[in-house]
């Protein structure tokens, strides 16, 4: 349990350091630097060596990390773990600041499908990146983060919304989501006020700031809870917990020689469908894999052999049973927090798991001495999806969708289990090191 708590604390630290997808990549890069991983630019030729540790970043919020195996690609294929760096929430609009009756408010757009009510009465702030004139006729970018509470979405008192406890909190998405920033004089111009705030935190002159990608985040740090402190709570557990588990397993495995080529692919834009040049439905991962093949002298025929031997573990969080809402779950698939990772199955291919890939993951759990569970959504409710089916179809490889059980998915404050995170790290580590005997059937 001590190791599990240390890993869970490291996860909370990872999330708290990463309040936006661009910060996620920066945090990952800091960790990779400690393991001698070499950054490759997509604009440059690649020269790779067996056993070499490499990574490349596309547009600051998606990353592919790989260690080149000691055996030829056609003999081993790629062992891939995929996850996503983005989380549902609120993003600032381009014309973000406006004044209404002396109140300076920031206009937001909805990213993905967050539980909007959970953003009320929280200590909110901003993080992301700004784009600016670099003084040389080009555009530069800079990560920014306001550490202090900057914004708020105050609830109405119950005296003005008497039905809230019976009907639930409902926010009109356009009119009632702007976030309160300051009380100002009406004659003040909202954009200069806001860009001067950006100047203060970035050191970039307000007049040089051209645009931004900024999301709203909760300044409350992650915490343990429960009678034995066996649970964790934080934002962005979906899906930074999977990114952290995959990265930890990958870095731990580097202590041992690798016959196969290992890959971790973490994509932005999963929460909005993955259809972008940096999303799982884009060319990023296929581009990287084909460049690895080309740099190692692997021809087209051999590359297709390698893909036929490859396997993807798509890691994304799963819905844990909540006893206060039993009717929301299939009676035969009530997965429990701290009882192990979940194999997610859907006949409509919202998840990529099928019997063979599920059996392979179950065998790796058994090798790692890790319990596992299975989940299927109620047939009368729409099911979410993951990068699994998209990536599996694009690459033409077998895949399984798995994830740790959690409560309150897409809330600003989610919960999960300490032991489950430990279990997922162990089984992903086992997957990377598994021999061909535990690999794909012919």
Compute the CA-based radius of gyration.
Answer: 23 Å
Q: In the residues, how many domains can be counted?
A: 2
> How much helicity do the residues have?
25-40%
Number of strand elements: 20
Question: What is the CATH C-level name of the largest domain?
Answer: Alpha Beta
CATH topology title of the largest domain:
Aminopeptidase
Can you count the helices?
Answer: 11
What kind of sheet is the major sheet? 9 strands, mixed
Shape: globular
Task: Give the CATH H-level superfamily of the largest domain.
Answer: Zn peptidases
Separation of the first and last Cα atoms: 39 Å
Estimate the mean pLDDT confidence. Answer: 95
Query: Strand percentage, roughly?
Result: 25-35%
* Contiguous runs where pLDDT drops below 50 for at least 5 residues: none
Question: Which structural class is indicated by helix and strand composition?
Answer: alpha/beta
Task: Please outline what is shown here.
The chain is 29% helix and 26% strand. It is of the alpha/beta class and 442 residues long.
